[in-house]
Amino acid sequence: MWNLIVEESPYMIAAMLAAPIVLVLSGLIAGKAERPVRSTSIFVLGAVILDLIFAAVILWLLHVVGISSEDNISAWIDTLLGVLFLVIGIKAAIDRPTEEEKATQRARMEKIAAAKATSLLLAGVLVQIVNADALAVFGSGLKEIAITTPYPTAATIVVVVLVFLFVMLVPYHLPIWLYVASPEKAGGKMRAMSAWLLDHAQALEVVVGLGFGALFLFKGLTALL
């Protein structure tokens, strides 16, 4: 099962890199809140709650269906993920957002960052729903758990899922660690990082989308052919 963590973690990182705006939003929350660690943790908790429910449902469904390593379902899932990432990459490459659209997006994130606890929790849930590519990659990792023989114990599944979540949600919780490590310097670091990510978000989406799209597609088609 530890081999599974090593093999699937790069895909969780792909899910992370495919949504750089999430890190910008998390950084804004940490920068605006009177209690940065508390507010950012509530935002992260929203995403974690959704992901745990998603994991429980997917693992239950896969267990009921009885998917195995010999089934083509696994290869089809990888192929569909490849197509999904390629679409993301191509869409990012052809999109030309106007300055007005960029300003609207920034204003929306600023509004979320200044929200109260309940709204931050809901924002964490909603942002993770919008970040459907991350959920898709997460589902692929869960699929690998389901086809493991013998079927892993509940404790092992919990550990693997938590590791996947920690890696995939790095954009959400990174500002927390920055503030814990250096409260005085974290504000400046987060502002610089947020500015850089906003300027390069489209390029990151293109590279990650096309790169991991090709990787997933190759993995899926190789298994099918």
Topology:
Elements: H1 2-17, H2 20-32, H3 36-65, H4 72-94, H5 99-113, H6 117-130, H7 132-146, H8 154-168, H9 170-181, H10 183-224
Helix pairs in contact: 1-7, 1-8, 2-3, 2-5, 2-9, 2-10, 3-6, 3-7, 3-9, 4-7, 4-10, 7-8, 9-10
Question: What would you say this structure looks like, in words?
Answer:
The protein has 225 residues and is an all-alpha fold. The longest helix has 42 residues, at 183-224. The model has no long low-confidence stretch (mean pLDDT 80). The two termini are 27 Å apart. It has one domain. The relative contact order is 0.24. It is built from 10 helices and no strands. The radius of gyration is 18 Å and the shape is globular. Helices cover 87% and strands 0% of the residues.
Q: Can you give me a brief rundown of this structure?
A:
The protein has ten helices and no strands. It has 225 residues and is mainly α.
Structural class, from secondary structure content? mainly alpha
Q: What kind of sheet is the major sheet?
A: none
What would the average pLDDT be, to the nearest integer?
Answer: 80
Order of helices and strands: HHHHHHHHHH
Give the radius of gyration. 18 Å
Q: How many helices in DSSP terms?
A: 10
Total domain count? 1
Give the overall shape: globular
Number of strands: 0
In helices, the fraction of residues equals over 70%
Q: Roughly how many Å apart are the termini?
A: 27 Å
Low-pLDDT windows of residues: none
Strand content: under 5%
